[in-house]
Design goal:
With 359 residues, the protein is of the alpha/beta class. It folds into two domains: 135 residues, Rossmann fold (3-Layer(aba) Sandwich); 198 residues, Dihydrodipicolinate Reductase, domain 2 (2-Layer Sandwich). Helix content is 33%, strand content 26%. The chain has eleven helices and 17 strands. Strand 14 and strand 15 form a beta hairpin. 46% of the residues are buried.
Length: 359
């Protein structure tokens, strides 16, 4: 396929910040249709893009013959129904995370996509940070040795500001667990491997936002054991006062292994910290320029804010996988694996006990 014709379902902030700039960098992609249930949001996106095919019905968009692929950027509770409709129509699909409200839904999506033979992608955007990509390369090369410990910490200061549908359980499923910790669970799978058991806790510390109830967690922590014997500690909060937010706040990952240790910080996109076993401490190592962009991406890493523009490589990977007839990275299977851990964390917090995950 020389040109991939795309529709975007859900035209809110993520679409405007990540997906549209990404599409603009890929000459083989053409945005042909937009969909949003909010007519005002839809009109704003139409005016910004110039796209003439717009609808408030995802069913109408999905069955169009002039749409080859779909990006889903809607509230979490709609993901499964829309994705399954896209897959049934034989179209490729990129879905925001978490891809479903529970593991059963996520697994059904992954299995349906595999049967259909279409490209499917989960928007774990932080996998495209250059330093994370280089860290994965070094670990696969053996520089870490046997993994001992994984820890991640994501701290933001969102205060009591309103979060819209993200503060409503029936619409979002989970709060900080799905919003931010899901990325770091995916990091753990990517760098260390599957989690075998965990114990978790969540807290709702702000019960009202924007005059409306907030019934979802704004803090979560997981203590985990990996199938390979490594330990894991993962924490994420929206209420770390003074920490700022987005890429200006702390997003920290440390891995200790038999041969050495690595530290990844999203804000330090072009460097890692590394120390050898028995050494005097950690030293900074640069990320080689070949890792600054996704393989084949036309993006110029010297243009724009590098803490923003790495996100645009996600759309390139989606389009390139479709044109190359290969699997996307990361796919729905990775999204389902993360959802399984999230379900176990919710169960553990409710029961206040350890939960085993299937092998």
């Amino acid at each position: 396929m020389s040109v991939i014709r795309l529709a975007i379902i859900g035209c809110g902030g993520i679409t405007l910040q990540n997906h549209l700039p990404g599409l603009a960098l890929v000459p083989e992609a053409r945005l042909v249709a937009l969909c949003d249930t909010n007519a005002e949001v839809l009109e704003r996106a139409r005016a910004q893009t110039g796209v003439t095919i717009v609808s408030t019905s995802f069913e109408e968009i999905v069955r169009r013959d002039d749409v080859d692929a779909v990006i889903i950027a809607t509230p979490n509770f709609t993901h499964a129904a829309i994705a399954l409709a896209v897959i049934a129509a034989g179209k490729h699909v990129l879905c925001e995370k978490p891809i479903a409200l529970n593991h059963a839904e996520a697994r059904a999506m992954a299995e349906a996509a595999a049967r259909a033979g279409i490209c499917h992608m989960t928007a774990f955007t932080y996998r495209f940070v250059p330093a994370m990509r280089y860290l994965g390369h070094l670990i696969r090369r053996g520089d870490l040795g046997q993994p001992y410990h994984y820890r991640s910490c994501r701290l933001q200061d969102w205060g009591a500001r309103p979060l819209g549908w993200r503060q409503v359980k029936k619409l979002a499923g989970t709060g900080e667990l799905g919003d931010m910790l899901s990325h770091r669970i995916n990091f753990a799978h990517h760098l260390v491997g599957p989690i075998s058991r965990l114990v978790a806790n969540t807290k709702i510390l702000v019960h009202e936002r924007g005059g409306q109830p907030s019934d979802l967690d704004d803090w979560v922590a997981i203590l985990a054991e990996f199938a390979n014997g490594a330990s894991g500690v993962l924490e994420s909060s929206k209420l770390a006062s003074g920490r700022n937010e987005s890429w200006r706040s702390l997003d920290y990952v440390e891995i200790n292994g038999a041969e050495g240790s690595f530290v990844f910080i999203t804000g330090q996109w072009d460097q890692l910290q590394y120390g050898r076993v028995g050494g005097a401490g950690l030293a900074t190592i640069p990320v080689p320029r070949e890792f600054w962009t996704w393989p084949g991406s036309p993006r110029n890493p010297d243009e724009g804010d590098p803490l923003v523009t790495f996100r645009y490589d996600q759309v390139f990977e989606f389009i390139d996988a479709i044109r190359s007839r290969r699997p996307c990275v990361p796919d729905f299977h990775e999204g389902a694996a993360v959802q399984q851990v999230m379900d176990a964390a919710v169960q553990s917090a409710a029961l206040r006990q350890w939960v085993d995950l299937p092998a």
